[in-house]
Backbone:
C-alpha cells in the first residue's frame, strides 16, 4: 500500500466514527496535533491546581477545605489521565514535564490570573470549570480513542467541580454586604478570562479546520463560547449578580445572547507569558518538581534494589 | 502470523513498518518510573476492566497510586496492576486474517437454528 491508501483508510475510519487507536496508522500531523493538544490539556489540569491550592489552608470551614482538597486532587488525576493518553502517541512523561517547566509548552491562560479572595474559589469552579466542561464534553467524542476515554472519566468528575463552585457563590450571594461584594468582585475578574479560555475567534484560529476534519474537535471556538455565554447568563440570575458586560443581551432573532468584544490584546499578552502570574506559576511548578526529585530517585533505587535481592534469592 | 511481542505504552505504539508514524523519535526516559496498566473490578462478581495507566517505581507503589487515581469514588473493590512491557497485543495490520475465520461460522450462534414455537426458552 502506498501512503495515499493509508491516508484514505484513516479518513474513512474517522468519517465512519471509528476511533483511532494507538497502534493504528495515522498521519504524522494527526499524531503531532494530538500530542500537542493532549499535553497542553494535561498541563492545564496540573497548573490549574495552583490558584486553588492557594486557598486550601485558608478555606473558611473544614467542610469547604475538604471539598477544595478533593477538587484539587481530582485535577491532579485529570492531569495524569491525559499525560497517559499522550504517552500512547510516543511522547514521554519526562519530555512533556520538561517542556512545561522550561516554558516551551503552553497551558490554559486562565491559570495565570491570581486567586485573590475566597469567592474566587466559587467563581473558578462555576466559570472556569464550567467553560472547561463544555470543551470536555465535546472531547468525549474526539476521534483518538485514549483521549476520548480519558475525557469520559474526567467529565464524570467535573460536574461536582462546577456545582460546588456555584454553591459557594450562592452562599456568599445570600450573605452580608461584604460577602455579596466579594461574590460580585470575583465574577467581575473571572468573567472575561473565562471567555478567553475558548481561544481565538474562528476567523483567526489556524488549528480548527484540520482538527474538525479529523474530528479531534467537533465544535468551533465560537460555538463553544456562545454555548457558555448562554448557560452562564441564565445561571447568574439565580445568584442575583451581574456579568461585567454592558452589551450582554438576549437576541430573540439568533436565540442566543449577544455579548461584548473580548480584549484580545490581553489574551495574546497572557499567552505570550506576560500575564499577572505566568512567572509565579512556572516557578511554583519547577520548585515542586525539584524538591520532589530526591523522592523519585530514592524510590527508583529502592525498587531496583528490591528486585535485585529477589533475583539473587531465586538464583 | 506474528504477534507483537512487546508493548511499551498503554494502547501500544507500533514498532515496525506500519507506516510513517514509525519514525516518531522516542525520547530519553531512563529517569522515568516504569509504566503500569491498571485493571479494576468495579463490583464483586464482575471482571477486572482496564481503566488506564500510571508510572510507579514498583508494584506496591503502582497499587497505591492506582487506588488514589482510579478509585477515589469507590469505583472498585479489587485492583490489578501489571507492568506495561509485559502485555502482548495483537496487531491491527493483521486483524483481517486473524479474526476472519470466525466470520463464516454462523452455526455457532443460537439464532442459526429454526425450531418450532412450542419449544420455549431454549
Ligand atoms: Fe479537570
Ligand atoms: Fe475541574
Residues:
Amino acid at each position: 500500500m502506498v501512503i495515499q491508501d493509508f491516508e484514505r483508510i484513516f479518513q474513512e475510519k474517522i468519517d465512519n466514527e471509528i476511533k483511532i487507536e494507538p497502534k493504528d496508522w495515522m498521519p504524522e500531523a494527526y499524531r503531532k496535533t494530538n500530542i500537542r493538544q493532549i499535553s497542553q490539556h494535561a498541563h492545564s489540569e496540573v497548573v490549574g491546581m495552583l490558584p486553588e491550592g492557594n486557598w486550601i489552608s485558608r478555606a473558611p470551614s473544614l467542610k469547604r477545605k475538604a471539598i477544595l482538597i478533593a477538587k484539587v486532587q481530582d485535577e491532579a488525576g485529570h492531569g495524569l489521565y491525559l499525560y497517559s493518553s499522550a504517552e500512547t502517541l510516543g511522547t514521554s512523561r519526562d519530555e512533556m514535564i520538561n517542556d512545561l517547566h522550561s516554558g516551551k509548552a503552553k497551558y490554559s491562560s486562565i491559570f495565570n490570573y491570581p486567586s485573590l479572595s475566597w469567592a474566587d474559589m466559587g467563581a473558578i469552579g462555576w466559570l472556569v470549570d464550567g467553560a472547561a466542561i463544555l470543551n470536555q464534553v465535546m472531547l468525549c467524542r474526539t476521534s483518538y480513542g485514549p483521549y476520548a476515554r480519558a475525557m469520559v472519566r474526567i467529565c464524570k468528575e467535573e460536574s461536582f467541580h462546577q456545582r460546588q463552585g456555584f454553591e459557594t457563590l450562592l452562599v456568599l450571594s445570600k450573605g452580608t454586604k461584604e460577602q455579596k461584594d466579594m461574590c460580585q468582585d470575583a465574577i467581575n475578574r473571572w468573567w472575561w478570562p473565562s471567555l478567553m479560555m475558548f481561544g481565538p475567534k474562528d476567523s483567526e484560529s489556524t488549528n480548527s479546520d484540520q482538527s474538525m476534519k479529523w474530528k479531534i474537535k467537533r465544535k468551533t471556538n465560537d460555538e463553544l463560547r456562545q454555548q457558555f455565554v448562554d448557560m452562564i447568563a441564565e445561571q447568574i440570575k439565580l445568584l442575583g449578580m451581574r456579568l461585567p458586560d454592558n452589551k450582554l443581551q438576549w437576541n430573540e432573532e439568533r436565540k442566543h445572547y449577544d455579548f461584548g468584544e473580548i480584549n484580545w490584546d490581553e489574551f495574546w499578552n497572557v499567552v505570550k507569558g506576560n500575564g499577572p502570574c505566568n512567572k509565579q506559576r512556572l516557578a511554583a511548578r519547577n520548585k515542586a518538581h525539584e524538591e520532589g526529585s530526591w523522592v523519585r530517585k530514592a524510590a527508583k533505587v529502592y525498587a531496583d534494589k528490591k528486585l535485585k535481592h529477589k533475583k539473587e534469592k531465586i538464583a | 502470523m506474528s504477534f507483537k511481542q512487546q508493548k511499551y505504552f498503554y494502547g501500544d505504539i507500533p514498532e515496525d513498518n506500519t507506516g510513517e508514524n514509525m519514525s516518531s523519535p522516542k525520547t530519553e526516559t531512563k529517569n522515568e518510573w516504569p509504566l503500569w496498566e491498571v485493571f479494576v473490578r468495579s463490583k464483586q462478581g464482575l471482571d477486572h476492566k482496564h481503566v488506564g495507566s500510571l508510572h510507579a517505581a514498583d508494584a506496591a507503589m503502582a497499587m497505591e497510586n492506582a487506588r488514589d487515581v482510579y478509585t477515589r469514588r469507590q469505583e472498585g473493590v479489587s485492583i490489578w496492576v501489571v507492568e506495561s512491557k509485559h502485555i502482548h497485543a495483537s496487531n491491527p495490520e493483521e486483524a483481517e486474517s486473524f479474526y476472519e475465520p470466525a466470520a463464516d461460522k454462523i452455526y455457532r450462534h443460537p439464532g442459526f437454528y429454526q425450531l418450532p414455537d412450542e419449544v420455549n426458552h431454549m
Notes: DSSP finds 13 helices and two strands in chain A. The radius of gyration of chain A is 22 Å. The first strand of chain A starts at residue 249 and ends at 251.
